[in-house]
Amino acid sequence: MSDRPVTLAVIIGAHGIAGEVRLKRFADDLASYKSFNGGTLTLKSLRAGSNGMIARFAEVSDRNAAEALRGTELSVPRSTLPPLGEGEYYHVDLLGLAAVSSEGESLGTVVAIDNYGAGDVLEVERATGKRFMVPMRPEAVPEWDAQRLVIDAAFVEA
Q1: The overall pTM is greater than 0.90
Q2: Residue 86 lies in a domain
Q3: Does a structural domain hold residue 47?
């Protein structure tokens, strides 16, 4: 497991004139993190708004400063995330993994993870640049660890 940054939210704009920002969040529990982006943003308050979450950071005192942060991703080190249960994973842990078939054939690298409503779908890019998708379900991906992800041969596209 690497300690690369994990994005938990992105600032989508200013809220009001006092320096608050609107957030699009990717994690349920932002309040348990007091600082983001290597300590450059310190969370003072967080509340629900009509269009997502509203946050106040100690370093942001007015609307102009808040507006300047539009598009800023709020990240924390991977090591600060809660531990996982059996069979759980963080997307950041799967991205970049080598993908191999259950027969040992090298398939490529996990380059994206999407969710269209029925669960996560992994996108694997072959050395040729061609990509294929596989559902992140136990029958399709029976095992993975920090070095590789195994895909059942029945789910491998030619």
Answers
A1: no
A2: no
A3: yes
Q: In what order do the strands lie in the sheet with 120-125?
A: 131-135, 120-125, 106-115, 98-101, 148-151, 143-144
List the CATH number of the domain containing 65: 2.40.30.60
pLDDT tens digits, residue range 36-72? 999 999 999 999 988 789 999 999 999 999 999 999 9
Q: Which residues, at least 6 apart from 69, have a Cβ–Cβ distance to it below 8 Å?
A: 11, 21, 60
- CA 63 from chain center: how many Å? 28
| Domain final residue pick, 80, 99, 114 | 80
Look up the domain containing 70 and give its range: 5-80
17-40, pLDDT tens digit by residue? 999 999 999 888 899 999 999 999
Check if the beta carbon of residue 21 is closer than 8 Å to that of residue 65: no
